[in-house]
């Protein structure tokens, strides 16, 4: 009796696992890459800025203005810094 009870419980467990796997075969983890500013600087950028883009705060990313430079590439800047607000008025926005 006890052996058949164990077999029945094992069979139910296997059936549940198979059902869960077959119900949604696309629920597998996928690789997610986060390429965003996680911190910003208030310091003025002494390089040639070619454009900018705005980044909204959505964990782990922070609110930022990303300036693109010829010399060093993207730089994360504080959107409330005065020099940043002045610079985005004269530099084109990048899509």
Please tell me about this protein's structure.
The protein has 95 residues and is α+β, with helices and mostly antiparallel strands. The protein has 2 helices and 3 strands; from the N terminus they run H-E-E-E-H. The chain has helices at residues 2-23, 82-87; strands spanning 49-55, 64-69, 73-77. Strands 1-2-3 form a 3-stranded antiparallel sheet, with no helix packed on it. The longest helix is centred in the N-terminal third of the chain and has 22 residues, at 2-23. The chain starts with a helix and ends in an 8-residue tail after the last helix.
Helix content: 25-40%
Largest sheet: 3 strands, antiparallel
Across the major sheet, the strand order is 1-2-3
Strand content: 15-25%
Distance between the termini: 70 Å
Question: Number of DSSP strands?
Answer: 3
The topology string of helices and strands comes to HEEEH
The secondary structure category is alpha+beta
Low-confidence stretches: none
Mean pLDDT reading: 83
**What would you report as the Rg, rounded to the nearest angstrom?**
26 Å
